[in-house]
Amino acid sequence: MNIMDILVAKKLRILADAAKYDASCSSSGSKGRKAGEGAIGSTTGSGICHSYTPDGRCISLLKILLTNYCLFDCAYCINRRSSNVQRARFTVEEVVSLTLGFYKRNYIEGLFLSSGIIKTPDHTMEELVRVARSLRRDHGFAGYIHLKTIPEASPWLIEQAGLWADRLSINVELPTVLGLKALAPEKDGGTIAAAMGQMNERMIEAKEEKRRFAPAGQSTQMIVGADAATDEMVLNTSASLYGNFRLRRVYYSAFSPIPEASSVLPVKAPPLRRENRLYQADWLLRYYGFSAPEIASSGEGGMLDLDIDPKLAWALKNRDRFPVDVNTGERELLLRVPGLGARAVDKIIVARRHTALGLDDIRRLSPGLKRARPFLITRDHSPARLTDRLDLRERLAPPPTQLGLFE
Amino acid sequence: MNMTLTQVALQPGGDLDGFRAAARRLIGRDTPPGQVIWTSEGDLFGAAPEGEGAPLMLPKLTGEIIPLVVCHNDPQRYGLLYTLIWRLTHGERHLMQIASDPLVHRLYIMAKSVRRDLHKMHAFVRFRQLDLPGGGERFMAWFEPEHFIVEATAQFFVDRFRGMDWAILTPKGSLHWDTRTLTIGPPGERAAAPQMDDFEQHWLDYYEATFNPARVNPTVMKREMAVKYWKNLPEAEIIPRLIHEAAPRVQAMIEREAEMSTKRNPDKAVAAMADQTPKSLDALNRLILESVPPAPFSPRAVLGEGLIGARIAFVGEQPGDQEDIEGRPFIGPAGQLLDRALEEAGIVRAETYVTNAVKNFKFKPSGKRRIHQTPTTGEIKHYRWWLERELEFVHPHLVVALGATATQALAGKAMPVMKNRGATSAFGAWPGFITIHPSSLLRQPDEAAKTAGYKAFVDDLKRAGALAA
After folding, report:
1. pLDDT digits (tens, 9 = 90+) for A108-120
2. Structure ipTM
3. Would you tell me which CATH number, out of the four given (3.40.190.10, 3.20.20.70, 3.75.10.10, 1.20.120.1080), belongs to the domain A8-32+46-270?
4. In angstroms, rounded to a whole number, what is the distance separating the alpha carbons of residues A129 and B444?
5. Chain A window 170-199: which residues touch B at a Cβ cutoff of 8 Å?
């Protein structure tokens, strides 16, 4: 390696480390696109995970910061201005050439670029836009680009970013406005909502007018466990984000110990199980017809049950709604059966037009029969008294496992 | 009933064409699945194909599943598929919809396994760059798929790496792309692919840096990136070390006390951060010039011109052909008409400010001509923030919207011009006035209407002039 490569390598290590606390990695949601003559890049609707790190998370995009110098002082962030972390700054050209180098070797689907705030939000956002513009215009790059939008930047920069990016995102960071005020003094909930609103409006118009503006929509991230917000507050915020701004995804990120921690936040192991339950609840919200209050009612005091998944927890508290007959039950009810996924339900509905389904049939259609069984009636099975059993929860909860080192 | 067995010899790998022809032939002769022996080592005895049967009418789902299952490495695949076709054509037309049927279930699982293998090949191929003596870039990869999917992945790699010279070698066949033509070749050798690429160190560095040791979870990693793929993934080499080091790294983070910041006092920089809007019309105009317009617009932005502090500011729709060429607003036919009307209304153009709601020319090429296109709502909004800042610098007494686009840009919503003609309070902070765009007079075919329209336009300008005074 020559000296330039060594410098770039050092920056890459610092600025990838600085970017990794953003959970979003997806390269999905864009329209299918192919490389033009002499160029590279394509997108598939569902995206591709090119690798997995030992934390079980996928690598789909080159996820880096343009710089980790930052004027903001958000307590949960390793890059806040008061942190003593090592700093670095890429040039636009360096990011472009790393992205192309990674892409040509098939390491990634594209670029996920974010940045600390330097000089001004506008200046920072302009730099992000320059990277995307250079990839698209100077290199004909047709791969995936996800740009982090800086809500404090002027609205014209969001307009520019949407011309080049597949996805735009702004992190709401904390579930409540109060939490944000306490931990991120430079951020403002109203500014974030306004920018999300602007992006949503432009995405709707572009779709109607058949123009290109961030075709993969917008997403956001909430940090879980950095403040006192309950799961119910988190889910209410998600539901309103999905409803008001048509977000494609809300990512939940268990607050993770960081080097150079702030004294405001006690450093402890990340609440990974809670994060997992929130993701499950999020699916119920989006694909299973549950409302946020319904999901929250499955736990206690606004917190989800950590030992069993929220769908099972809800079913155990609403036993009068079961059992459901797989051969006659409505889709909405089948979707509420623990252990039956949306795909299995759809297959059941098609198959039962031609045959009366038995337990063996359900076993072939769904991997979750064990959990579903007490809640189902099939041709050859009726759980009758099973749903009344007091020990049903114990029978269905996964056996207590030895807690992992950091759970 | 004839109980002789029929042997069908297909080509090695996934022989979709051979299978399709054989299935047609066999169904045509009403040969039940139990009487067919399928082999796929090639036709050793060189028996001539026995002619095509009639095409089979099969449900759509079958068409999706057969090409996938044919690629599966299970030697029973053809027999299972033929049984499916037999049942579909012998009274079980809806069989595909019964996903719980044991055969259908098994075929779905096989198709899923092939789909997953395709997906993993798209994901886990790692190109290495070759050292070419004459310069130029060439990339090559070695990959080991589970099923016979090499041909089926070709289109994906061509679509993605069209401008690149590349080859993928596998034990089941190879792909070669020279930026123009695809060649599907015989199985390759691992040794024929490059063993290193200096750039790869960046990838390993990235892989390590993006890993969060506080969340270590190898089970999930192995579920998604099965160990069987690791031998061809350069990053897999460092996985054991990363897992081994994770716990002590996190323990060190937890035990470490929060430290005082060693940064200089940031107050000045933080204060300066909030002060980012352009400080002059020139600074704003530089932003407009440097920005790229949405798709079908001319790249040249035409800026407003005139007097800062003018009593009256005119906002038109967008630059036209002429304006785009010369880079100045309202100088084409509509501009000349505006000049004439202004003069008759007693307004000196040099004492006003003239600009457009949309700064770039939107057009559709038609032969040598460029045909004006009306900007959409979204496009008008794209420029709206700039227009607002621009007017703040000019600070006129009255803002005159010429036509529907300008009215929409200034009011933030569409308003019919003829109905709202005259003074308006719909332009936010600015006393406003709505009138027609002079180009609408140019398009008017009826001479009498044109004359009347022109007179009304001049009258509007007179009233606007009086309001601005």
Report:
1. 999 999 999 999 9
2. 0.93
3. 3.20.20.70
4. 43
5. 186
